[in-house]
Amino acid sequence: MKRINEIFYSLQGEGRNTGRAAVFVRFAGCNLRCPFCDTEFDSYREMTDEAILAALAQYPGRFVVLTGGEPTLQVDEAFVDLLHQHGYEVAMESNGTRPAPRNLDWLTVSPKGNEKMRDEEWLRQPDELKLVFDEGTQPDGVISHFSFVIPPLLYLQPCDTGDPQRNAAIVAACVDYIKQHPRWRLSLQTHKLIDIK
Fold first, then answer.
1. Could you list the pLDDT tens digit for every one of the 197 residues in the chain?
2. Which residues are catalytic, by number?
3. From residue 197, how far is each of 44, 64, 72, 192 by CA, in Å?
4. What is the rounded (10 degree) CA torsion for 113, 114, 119, 123?
5. Partner of 5 for a Cys bridge, out of 28, 157, 164, 179, CB 3.0 to 4.6 A?
6. Terminal-residue alpha carbon distance, the chain
7. Residue 115 to residue 105: CA distance in whole angstroms
């Protein structure tokens, strides 16, 4: 049984896959408590793998995003294999503090500055790193202890504080940082910009 907060169909709003139709499977529970987190993941219903597949089958999309909370607390390679066997492309969004399944099609890691996170513990190198950016973020410092075989795509995502004035300042600082450090790319939460889930 897996603890599922919600399953819904929308567009991926962030990172390299922005704009793709995706079925999101949001797992309940997280091993971190970030102050800027916009997800209510403490409530859930228990679902079997078969019930999750039945829920996915309601939608025409074949791209599944496993998110949370922190999906690595519940997802293993057998579950990813099951999704593959039913024709799904499988992506995961993780905080990077725990090993992710090796057989994912796409892995987004969003480091939260947690000192427990070390890339030598990862079973699978991420395809992209996405850092939430605010006035105090030093992106190159956060990733300086990583030693990637192939560097992932690097995204900075301005933190949404709920304060329009502060948000504007954060976006301006983020754009300036990227202009000075061009290996980074800008990731906007486009689902919020166009007001979809």
1. 999 999 999 999 999 999 999 999 999 988 776 665 656 666 899 999 999 999 999 999 999 999 998 999 999 999 999 999 999 999 999 988 889 999 999 999 988 755 455 565 666 789 999 999 998 888 988 887 777 777 789 999 999 999 999 999 999 999 999 999 999 999 999 888 878 88
2. 24, 30, 34, 37-39, 93, 191
3. 18, 15, 23, 8
4. -130
5. 28
6. 26
7. 27
Q: d(Cα 193, Cα 8) in Å, to the nearest integer?
A: 19
Q: How far apart are CA 157 and CA 170, in angstroms?
A: 10
The CA-CA-CA angle for residues 124, 130, 136, to 5°, reads 130
Q: Quick check: 19 and 60 in contact, CB under 8 A?
A: no
Q: pTM for this one?
A: 0.90
DSSP string for residues in 106-154:
EEEE---S-TT--GGG-SS--SEEEEEE-TT--HHHHTTT---SSPPEE
Cα 190 to Cα 14: distance, rounded to the nearest angstrom: 7
Question: For residues 113 and 142, is the Cβ–Cβ distance under 8 A?
Answer: yes
